[in-house]
Amino acid sequence: MATTVNGIAFIVLAFALLLGAxxxxxxxxxxxxxxxxxxxxxASAGLFYFLSADYIAVMQLMVYAGAVGILxxxxxxxxxxxxxxxxxxxxxxxxxxxxxxxxFGLMAYAILTSPSLVHAALxxxxxxxxxxxxxxxxxxxxxxxxxxxSLVLTVALIAAVWWTRDGDAE
Length: 170
Description:
The protein has 3 domains: about 90 residues, Up-down Bundle (Four Helix Bundle (Hemerythrin (Met), subunit A)); about 25 residues; about 45 residues. Helix 1 runs antiparallel to helix 2 and helix 3 packs parallel to helix 7. It is built from 7 helices and no strands. It is mainly α. The longest helix has 26 residues.
């Protein structure tokens, strides 16, 4: 019974993820698109949970839904001057559709024909949270790229606020 419930929940979350991603692309209101982006982050965290990747699910919730999603919402709220600024045109690009279809076909071909991906062996044991923390924050770990990414996000937010200011406020 538990596997059936997990399977149904997985399917529901997968459809929610696809619906959210399509809604991000087709939403005319930028704020609505940001909310749909939060929904996709939550649905992907749920998918990670049902795939027994609890740590990744929690990180998905904290980093993407909690930090990046809220940063995007606040940035839109700060930089939007009026309601008409929050509405974007829905431009359809046949070249973009053809390019994305070709890219998808190339990636599917590469994944299906790669011998290392098809016959990859699962690890014998999972690393603990302590080992993962030591790997992430060691001298050769991921602490520096993480800090660089946070600085880039901060600069992007400051640039967005500066870009939308009204004339020279001298």
